């Protein structure tokens, strides 16, 4: 009997559906680019409060950088994926691919 292949662990910070959508969206930006909070919120169709909660978890993990500044007198919040966040997303996608390959192999 063959031993089952060891399946990779998925990063729980990224794996939550809403956070996965955030990371995928931010990963589409060029490294070093950022997006204004309202634009990200609109793209994702999330409420400001919900997006804020998920961004806080991603920021705590070091996956996103949040910069609060002013444009004239108006406060503006920018969000960007960090290098650590990009690396974590790459590891996550590798783990997902391995899980899918294992599922396909198990069908034989």
Automatic annotation (TrEMBL):
Transcription regulation is among the record's keywords: no
Residues spanning the membrane: none
Pfam families to which the protein is assigned, alphabetical: HTH_34 (PF13601)
Tagged with keyword DNA-binding: yes
Winged helix DNA-binding domain location: 19-99
Record Gene3D superfamilies: Winged helix-like DNA-binding domain superfamily/Winged helix DNA-binding domain (1.10.10.10)
GO molecular function terms noted in the UniProt entry: DNA binding
Stored InterPro entries: ArsR-like_HTH, WH-like_DNA-bd_sf, WH_DNA-bd_dom, WH_DNA-bd_sf
Alphabetically ordered keywords of this record: DNA-binding
PANTHER family: BSL7504 PROTEIN (PTHR37318)
Entry protein name: Winged helix DNA-binding domain-containing protein
Organism: Thermostaphylospora chromogena
Lineage: Bacteria, Bacillati, Actinomycetota, Actinomycetes, Streptosporangiales
């Amino acid at each position: 009997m063959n031993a089952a292949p060891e399946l990779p662990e998925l990063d729980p910070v990224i794996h939550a559906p809403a956070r996965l959508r955030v990371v995928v969206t931010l990963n589409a930006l060029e490294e070093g680019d950022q997006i204004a909070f309202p634009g990200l919120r609109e793209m994702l169709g999330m409420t400001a409060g919900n997006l804020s909660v998920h961004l806080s978890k991603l920021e705590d993990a070091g996956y996103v950088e949040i910069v609060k500044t002013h444009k004239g007198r108006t406060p503006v919040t920018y969000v960007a994926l960090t290098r650590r966040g990009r690396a974590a997303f790459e590891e996550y996608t590798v783990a997902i691919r391995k899980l899918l390959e294992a599922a396909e192999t198990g069908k034989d």
